[in-house]
Design goal:
Chain B: This is ThiS family protein. Chain A: InterPro entries: WD40/YVTN_repeat-like_dom_sf, Xyloglucanase_GH74. The complex is a heterodimer. By secondary structure, chain A is mostly beta strands. Chain A has two helices and 30 strands. The longest helix of chain A is centred in the middle third of the chain and has 4 residues, at 144-147. Chain B is of the alpha+beta class. The chains are: A mainly beta, B alpha+beta.
Chain lengths: 387, 92
């Protein structure tokens, strides 16, 4: 089966297709625009791109002719009355100063998308919003149960809520310090069961299609907080990914390690191995069938955010994180400072692909054993998705 | 009738406006933006956010004066005014 890789970059959308046995990249649209995420809706075959135009704001773009032409989709807007607590930004001493303020919500960023088996389209945004369409993307509505979650400060549509928030911010918020929803994982067995992950709040799960949400941070740690095991506050999962064949198996990397759950995120187990360089990073790819098998592109601590010792490698586990193997064949062993962002690593079958901030794109067709560089001069890569 | 001049960047998203002499009714900047929205659906959300405020990195001028009211766009537009909608340069 022919495979295609959809690549969102800081300066446009690219496709990487296999032509006569070779992976070949080409510009596919949105030249000059930031493309945070590109994905294909398997229900309708529509391609979607989440754009950030800088001056002109965040816009959804779609293509119904497989990328030949793109046009603005109906746009996502926060509804009238949508307000949120804005935490005080960190000061030079590291502490936020003053009380949170209440702010009218406006769309800062479209960050991720996913598609349910029931045809629903889900979009994650900044500030901390989850939007859903039940009509193929003609209209989107804010999920109010998550927006009004107690951990966030309660219902600000009808009042002033609880007066405080446990949701903090991300520097990815286009100039503000607001939370961002970057991961949406949908249970293939039941599209009403969804996990989302938010920087900075943590993981939440719904089992009723988004009518109610439970916090799922048990077992995660925050070494940067006074109470590192507090399950409410301040967790910063960089991305979560589930195993489609075993959806109770979920993975994430964050500031404080690599974490694995085999019980639907009811609890997480730290499975880092700093001696193997496996501790800090952004994306994770999970085997489609075996939830114990996952791949990471490790980085060197949140203080540096570069490759470990200037050497680019992929780490793979096949035993739920008990052991890790460094896969280096075809990847640069020195003077490589590629960082791979949270959406820029994906897999389909035995094929894996990742793109980096330095414009490199690598593909493996043998489960990570060997890698081929298929592009080296792309704009910084934001997202990589097969589709 | 206000005479509207757009940064060429906006033609990338609204190619039907390119090369046109854009003349619209409007006694305020809000009315001018509304008229442009009618002419090119989707236009207003490029220039303003969902609360109707001019986006941070967009500038609107009436003749050579930057508009005062970026929140509700009440600045008056005279019948022969030229209105410029431009990107705000932030340096770099």
């Amino acid at each position: 089966m022919s495979q295609r890789i959809l690549v969102g970059t800081r300066k446009g959308t690219f496709f990487v297709e296999k032509v006569n046995g070779r992976w070949k990249p080409r510009l596919a649209g949105h030249i000059g625009a930031g493309v945070n995420f590109v994905a294909r809706d398997p229900n309708t075959r529509t391609l979607w791109a989440a754009l950030g135009h800088g001056h002109w704001g965040a816009k959804l773009s779609s293509s119904r002719d497989d990328g030949a032409t793109w046009k603005d989709a109906p746009q996502i807007r926060y509804p009238e009355g949508a307000r949120h607590f804005l935490p005080p930004p960190p000061s030079e001493t590291g502490e936020g100063e003053g009380a949170p303020t209440i702010k009218d919500a406006t769309l800062l960023k479209l960050w991720c998308m996913n598609f349910g088996g029931d045809g629903r389209i889900w979009v994650g945004t900044i500030p901390g919003g989850l939007f859903m369409s039940e009509d193929g993307g003609a209209t989107f509505e804010l999920n109010r149960a998550l927006w009004n979650h107690e951990s966030r400060g309660g219902d600000l549509f009808s009042g002033d809520g609880t007066g405080t928030t446990r949701w903090y911010g991300t520097p990815a918020a286009e100039g503000e310090f607001a939370p961002g929803l970057h991961s949406i994982e949908i249970d293939p067995r039941d599209p009403r069961r969804i996990w989302v992950a938010i920087s900075t709040a943590g993981v939440f799960e719904t089992r009723d299609g988004g009518e109610s949400w439970e916090v799922r941070n048990q077992g995660l740690v925050m070494e940067y907080a006074p109470n590192p095991e507090d399950t409410w506050a301040g967790h910063d999962p960089h991305a979560i990914a589930l195993c489609p064949g075993q959806p109770d198996h979920l993975w994430q990397q964050n500031h404080c390690g690599v974490f694995y759950s085999e019980n639907g995120a009811a609890s997480w187990k730290k499975v880092s191995s700093p001696g193997d360089g496996v501790h800090f990073g952004f994306p994770v790819a999970v085997d489609p069938k075996d939830g114990r098998t996952a791949w990471l592109v490790p980085g060197k601590s949140d203080a540096q955010r570069v490759t470990v010792d200037g050497s680019l490698f992929v780490a793979r586990t096949t035993d739920g994180g008990e052991s890790w193997t460094a896969l280096r064949k075809g990847l640069p062993a020195e003077l490589a400072y590629d960082v791979v962002y949270r959406h820029a690593f994906h897999n389909a079958g035995d094929t894996l692909a990742f793109g980096s901030t330095t414009g490199n794109l690598y593909v493996s067709e043998d489960r990570g054993e060997s890698w081929e560089g298929v592009a080296h001069h792309l704009p910084p890569v934001y997202s990589v998705r097969f589709g | 009738m206000a005479h509207v001049e757009l940064t060429s960047h906006l033609y990338q998203f609204f190619p039907t406006l390119e090369g046109q002499k854009i003349v619209v009714d409007g006694a305020s900047v809000r009315e001018v933006v509304d008229a442009l929205e009618a002419l090119a659906p989707g236009f207003a959300f490029y220039v303003c956010d969902e609360r109707g405020r001019v986006r941070q990195h967009v500038n609107i001028f009436i003749e050579s004066e930057r508009i005062q009211d970026r929140g509700t766009l009440t600045d008056a537009v005279r019948p022969d005014s030229r209105v410029f909608i431009l990107q705000a340069l932030s340096g770099g």
